[in-house]
Amino acid sequence: MIEMKVAGIALDAVSRSPIVLLRDAAERRQLPIFIGQEQARAIISALENQVPPRPLTHDLLVNLLEEWNMVLERIIIHSLQDNTFYAILQVRQGEARKEIDSRPSDAIAIALRTKSPIWVMEEVIADASIPVDRDADEAERQAFRDFLSNLRPDDFKQDGRFSKRDES
User: Fold this and answer.
1) What is the C-alpha to C-alpha distance for residues 116 and 64, in angstroms, rounded to an integer?
2) Each residue of 113-139: pLDDT tens digit?
3) For residue 116, how many other CB atoms are within 10 A of its CB?
4) DSSP of 74-113, one letter per residue?
5) What domains are there in the chain, each with its CATH number?
6) Which of 10, 81, 120, 165 has the most C-beta neighbours closer than 10 Å?
């Protein structure tokens, strides 16, 4: 799993639909997830630390968690099926832990309000992420190719010699 942060909300150029952008800590990969208008507003209000005069749906859920002494440990975006992302809320109450199915947009809105981490399964990142910095990715690939091309058998010796175990 890879921990991600909300990089912001964008609009798709063609459909004008909101997209939440998650970015990894190295800021090398970005995961775009199409969301609804209401979820976009909920995420933006959490990012901007806006407090509504009355609790909205995500605020209500956070209030319920607090009243029942429950902690949102993290959210996990665990799969992508037919262009639909799936997420869970990992909630703890005392020693009891539960996983609750959620849309990623709702899970993100709640995680932002509770300052809980956002995790994404590596398979989802591999399938749906886009590179943020293609030049840095290519530079890293080239550095690895250079490293491999300069390897010699002597680089694998311990203290300048193989152990008896390695020779047999």
Assistant:
1) 16
2) 999 999 999 999 999 988 876 565 566
3) 19
4) EEEEEEEETTEEEEEEEEEETTEEEEEEE-HHHHHHHHHH
5) 2-150 (3.10.690.10)
6) 120
Instruction: Give the separation between CA 40 and CA 145, rounded to whole angstroms.
Output: 42
Terminal alpha carbon distance of the chain: 39
Burial 145-160 (b: 16+ CB within 10 A, else e): eeeeeeeeeeeeeeee
DSSP state of 132: S
* Closest by Cα among 53, 72, 54 to 113: 72
Q: Which residues contact 79 (CB under 8 A, 6 or more apart)?
A: 85, 86, 121, 123, 124
pLDDT single digits (tens) 19-77:
999 999 888 899 999 999 999 999 999 999 998 999 999 999 999 999 999 999 999 99
Q: What's the predicted TM-score (pTM) here? A: 0.77
DSSP 24-88: ETTS-EEEEEE--HHHHHHHHHHHTT---SS--HHHHHHHHHHHTT-EEEEEEEEEEETTEEEEE
